């Protein structure tokens, strides 16, 4: 924990104004810490911030449907007093008919003060960020980055443990294709002092470039294991992901492995009483419904924290101050 | 008409807070009466109530399109000062992809303060109501219930006659499959003292369980007739429904019967000068356009009253008081 | 320029209240001038007008998608403090199922204070305007009129030159099928004193009825030419449109002509330093992206001015005064 001078705090805040966030690398660790503190402030001061973005307009440009993410961005703006325009599916939109993303975004810049965009193609958010006259937040582009999901994950960990460092973080299931997992690992590595327990079948192991990032961090470590049941006892955080049948070469392997990666009350009995279970949702069957009532289940809380982080991010990029928030308080990093 | 003590009125009101409304059986007759009085109050005090739900968010989760119903729910919340998020068609939404209704509703509970849901499957609204942390209003589930349509019908009758009892209520057309008809009959039976004139071809007669409900009421009576022209003269209320060609075994029967169930100016001449014509809309050809300008045509007014009742219901379930409304005034029942 | 008495100004303004705008012929030139002055006032007084339409609801009934137009209408209402309901595609809506446009619009009149409608069929907006109890603005009906696009065009010309008369206006590309071009010419003819340079291939010449309108104006003149490069030097305004391949009888003609009608930096070098380039968007390749950074490129500014004119129009038809606006100031015509 470090304490900031008023000038430092003001600088970190002012440098967020007008920025686009395509990946979390667009934010410094100080800025991420500031957003986490803002999320925490907003959670406890919803009434105070409800006019922070009065008169602002968010455009949600969702070229593919992602209802959960779209409603989270929209709720965040509405809870800050702003308004929302947009579309939820390019197939019902005329924007894609022969018009470049750049042109669409330049048009929408004349309507909205900030844009949240989701697009099936990697790189679309970056193109949009370059073209727009207003901040663009990436709400997911292809197999690529989805920075506000990671902010939701970090805030949930922070809320449960009071910190995002000095933790044993287990990640379980499909660690090869799950972009949320990669982004969370990479971001935790920037803050340091995390031991990762990577729990997956051989077919779905963490890619080498992510392992490299852990090793390059200097302060983080990892182990790769196959079995959730064996590993669960040591974890502070368990981040579950879905194991999709399509990822396996044959059905026998899938059936053999599937249950290993399903979290149920029996496995929860082996876990610490303070462990937090996260999941980016939607869940299919990888977490048993019986686990939902366990106080360690944090995945619905995580949805709420994602919305709070989007409130923190939207207001910060717009340069709208949160009444009563003191940016010079200590930073959690 | 009965007069309530302040405590009674406050109790009826407070017991609505946080409730879900899947069918009208979820509401007591006192609560329905309170909602009718609120609808009436809102109609005459739109300016006073326009900030009653400031800062609230309604989620409209429409798994099948129903533009009329959705816009009514949304307008109701906006006219109370709240905001709206949601989707209008599950096919443009990602919510249904392998996620249970329970999970979707639990996610949305983190965004919205109240949910209005429409779903093609019977029972979906009940599942949602159990899972949600916020009130759920059923906006129609399959062939099942659609309670706010019935509230619209009741309020229209109340507004035209000052009462919903001691009336002769004709229901005309498809009385077998029309869920709005069944719900209206069942609810009027709870208040009592209505004589129903059930006007339909034999192929589309009122189901036995609905007749049973009339008989069980003790104070209501009914007659079944084939001919609108013969019956119209005795009616206070005429509730029209559509006779769909597909319901008939052969086209000859359909063609023979169709005109019998079309309301036109000639038939209107036989009706009382105070009769009220209701219809749940959309109408196809079962009410001639020439009838629209007749002051007895109440079906567009009914749309407005549906919106007013949704304002009454949404604010009540949220526990948001209507400024100036006195819940101790006499109840119309 | 003429100066109005307070009474004249108030009359022009009051006669707009409750009107529907299906074509620009629904507005007098005084009313168009008033709207241009209001657009200019709004541009410089966004903070003052942001509560002008508090509590109002706009319904956007878009029977075919037109994201750009819909978001412009919606943003306009939100920036005035109002709310928005509606649908963006009739295929996701239930409104069209067997219900007449008249019935739908009468239903929606019970929800909204004003309607913006787009429909694939010519005449749909006129039908809606007759049926509605609230003002209807045509957001495009078939190959027909799109009056708010023309208001955007006029306001952009007005903003660049301080007038919409005494100008040389070039229109380039498809002058046969482009409805925006015809509407702009017809409206400029009502104000008079414009010389039109009609730049198109023979296959896509301006229709005779539009030429007739120029000739009937008395004060306007025109010339028809084939080559943009030859004509560009004399233009104050260059209105670009797309030349669609499908319009040509054979591909050779298309390929031969296409480049003639593409605006690029080389052609811009031949133009006046004050020329304004307009385009209704979306553009495909008829304006090179290199032109975007030229200060004479006015097509993204035109998007913003379209939104401002929709603010002027929506508030005027609703009868909501713009705080601080003086309707007696001189009229630009």
TrEMBL record, chains A, B, C:
Carbamoyl phosphate binds at residues 68-69, 118, 146, 149, 281-282. One of its GO terms (biological process) is 'de novo' UMP biosynthetic process. Residues 19-158 form the Aspartate/ornithine carbamoyltransferase carbamoyl-P binding domain. It holds the Pfam family OTCace_N. Residues 167-313 form the Aspartate/ornithine carbamoyltransferase Asp/Orn-binding domain. Pathway: Pyrimidine metabolism; UMP biosynthesis via de novo pathway; (S)-dihydroorotate from bicarbonate: step 2/3. InterPro entries: Asp/Orn_carbamoyltranf_P-bd, Asp/Orn_carbamoylTrfase, Asp/Orn_carbamoylTrfase_sf, Asp_carbamoyltransf, Asp_carbamoyltransf_Asp/Orn-bd. It is an enzyme of class 2 (transferase). The keyword Protein biosynthesis does not apply. Its EC number is 2.1.3.2. It catalyses: carbamoyl phosphate + L-aspartate = N-carbamoyl-L-aspartate + phosphate + H(+). One of its GO terms (molecular function) is amino acid binding. Keywords: Pyrimidine biosynthesis, Transferase. L-aspartate binds at residues 97, 179, 242. Heterododecamer (2C3:3R2) of six catalytic PyrB chains organized as two trimers (C3), and six regulatory PyrI chains organized as three dimers (R2). Catalyzes the condensation of carbamoyl phosphate and aspartate to form carbamoyl aspartate and inorganic phosphate, the committed step in the de novo pyrimidine nucleotide biosynthesis pathway. Belongs to the aspartate/ornithine carbamoyltransferase superfamily. ATCase family. This is Aspartate carbamoyltransferase. It comes from Pseudoscardovia suis. The lineage of its organism: Bacteria, Bacillati, Actinomycetota, Actinomycetes, Bifidobacteriales.
